[in-house]
Amino acid sequence: MSIETQQVLTPKMISQLQELIQINIDSRDGFRHASEVTDDLTLQSAFEQIAIDRDAQADELARFVAWSGEYPRRDGSIAAAVHRAWMTIRESLSTDDRFAVLCEAERGEDSIKAAYEKALESFASTTVSDVLLRQYAAVKFSHDRIRDLRDSCAG
């Protein structure tokens, strides 16, 4: 990040970035776990790619937090909504029900999408907003991909 793109982030902004880092890490871990326990090659591939994307997003946001003199979250407690969604996914995976797994994955995607929407309101017209907008587009793409996979096995 160049000097021209840096700006002072308020404690509230840093907190919101920390939350986004955490939800990306939780999502990454959930998708990694899901890819390991499913035998469906299409789902494995989709889940692995989303996990890679979420890891990169967390790293990118962590640079903003570190630049502000704070330590970025790298693990730790799981946000309650994401934790519940991924626990349900893990339970669904044990039933080997592709539709149920995808329904729960989409619910997790709804959580991360909502977190980005909330953050975008706070970061409007800042240097961070460009990064958040790009990441939000990737989150929406993943959400829609999971939804489409779910819909393809619903009927």
Provide a descriptive summary of the structure in words.
Helix content is 77%, strand content 0%. With 155 residues, the protein is mainly alpha-helical. Helix 1 runs antiparallel to helix 4 and helix 4 packs antiparallel against helix 5. It has a single domain, classed as Ferritin, core subunit, four-helix bundle (Ferritin). The N and C termini lie far apart (47 Å).
List keywords for this structure.
mainly alpha; Ferritin; 5 helices; single chain; 155 residues
Short description:
The chain has 155 residues and is mostly helical. It is built from 5 helices and no strands.
Largest β-sheet summary: none
Percent of residues in helices: over 70%
Basic shape: elongated
Unreliable spans are 1-5
| CATH fold-type name | Ferritin
* Distinct helical segment count: 5
- H/E element sequence: HHHHH
The structural domain count equals 1
Named at the architecture level, the CATH assignment is Up-down Bundle
Beta strand count: 0
Cα-atom radius of gyration: 16 Å
Report the average pLDDT across residues: 83
Q: Identify the CATH class.
A: Mainly Alpha
